[in-house]
Amino acid sequence: MALISANNIKNQVLYGLIKQQRNITRFFSLGVYNNQKKTLTPKNGQNIVLVDGVRTPFLLSGTDYAKLMPHELAKQALSGILTKTGVSKDVIDYVIYGTVMQEVRTSNIAREAALAAGYSDKTPAHTVTMACISSNVAMTSAIGLINSGIYETIVCGGVEFMSDIPIRHSRKMRNLLLTANKAKTLQKKLALLASIRPDYFVPDLPSIAEFSSGETMGHSADRLAAAFGATRKEQDDFALRSHTKAQEAANKGWLTDIIPFQLPGVAKTVEKDNGIRVSSPEKLATLKPAFIKPHGTITAANASFLTDGASACIITTESKAKELGLKPKAYLRNFLYVSQDPIDQLLLGPAYGTPQILEKAGLTPKEIDVWEFHEAFAGQILANLKALDSDWFAQNFMNRKSKVGAPDINKFNNWGGSLSIGHPFAATGVRLAMHTANRLVREDGHFGLVAACAAGGQGVAMILERHPDANPN
User: How many helices (H) and strands (E) does the chain have?
Assistant: First the structure.
């Protein structure tokens, strides 16, 4: 596929197509669960189910979790899923856990957190990373291990702790310290000490930027929004929608995946997400651009924020769930990963993944009752919706004859998303799956579609099917 610059996308898409599709929604007549006859049968004849999932409250970094370590958050999620489901730790065959900004002292955080949570020391565990879709990787890796016949019941999830990210010495200082560690005499050690220069003390700070391009994700999102004609007002309106929907869901008690977190050493229990802020269009309009100044459209209010949080879920076969007396939330039917140009199309994973997963599952957009897309930026969401509703984009970038169409906005992220709830990178995938499963019950739906973008120009798409025994609690 030939790659073109964001400016070319802007020139060809913005003026040729976007003016005709300012309304990003396409309203479909969606099937009701009770009337839905279609079901997806796994090719190998084995039904794999999402039993249930939990998460800690998602908090702005630097707030109530600030003094913890990431494995302590993960411990809470890993123990919480056993408590919620009543599943014994002895039933768990394996643990797969994701993280992105890795704490060096707990490099295999899956193992350390599982031990801290009281899992058997005979239960293997490994850590995965794929940026914002790390816990999706954990879940789909579990599907593979179960389908292979190696294991039956696996706990998956992810944790991110942005309150205390690793900051390294400079490369020069690291080399000097390693050399000093090998020095045999005091004279050699003193000589190395004398060679230190002021620039050795400049820290090597981590950055949320693409290694391949050096560009921060916010800059990429700003360019993508401009390329697809996503205006500042559209972005602010979508961000406001996200916060409003999240607040409504919280007030109505629908966010049943949250488990309280008792802060160690203090008499305080964290029970809810703290990033939800319902503002006003007027106030949002006053905020200055955060990345491309002074004319960018992405601000602190229409971008997801740095978040601390952890999640966990149980995946097993339907027969094993029945044996254990469990009532699963959903069938995990299909999944796939996509990748594309990490410079001009960094955040278009959902646009590429959605048509492919629908074809893989043999479904049409009309048959999807619940849509859950990861909201990295409001501009990123709008760009993906516009791309999905563009024949030109489908034909020129996806080798398709026509567009698949944008999701029905009335079925889209109805409980808010990462913009409002928060985005602890490696924990978000399970949160998306649980919102999908629980919404399918509350909204009387049958099929749900999860899609997310990730650093490196990658993405994931998954199909969930409501289980007949599912309940929303």
Answer: 16, 12
Half-sphere CA count of 357, side-chain side, radius 13 A: 29
- Distance (Å, rounded) from C-alpha 154 to C-alpha 280? 43
How far is it, in rounded angstroms, from Cα 142 to Cα 149?
11
DSSP 301: S
The pTM of the full predicted model, rounded to 2 decimals, is: 0.90
Q: What angle do CA 252, 254, 255 make, to 5 degrees?
A: 125
pLDDT in tens, 316-346: 999 999 999 999 999 999 999 999 999 999 9
Assess whether 156 carries a catalytic annotation. no
In the prediction, which pLDDT does 211 show?
A: 82
pLDDT > 80? residue 23: no
> What is the pLDDT, as a whole number, of residue 37?
60
pLDDT at 21 (0 to 100): 43
Q: Active-site residue among 132, 290, 394, 426?
A: 132
Q: Is 362 left (phi over 0), alpha (psi -120 to 50) or beta?
A: left
Report pLDDT for 183: 86
Residue 453 a catalytic site member: yes
C-alpha dihedral (212, 215, 221, 227), degrees to nearest 10: -80
Answer yes or no: are the C-beta atoms of 364 and 38 closer than 8 Å.
no
One of 310, 330, 441, 453 is an active-site residue; which one? 453
HSE of 12 in the Cβ direction (CA atoms, 13 Å)?
14
- Tell me the three state secondary structure of residue 433: helix
Mean pLDDT across 399-406: 96
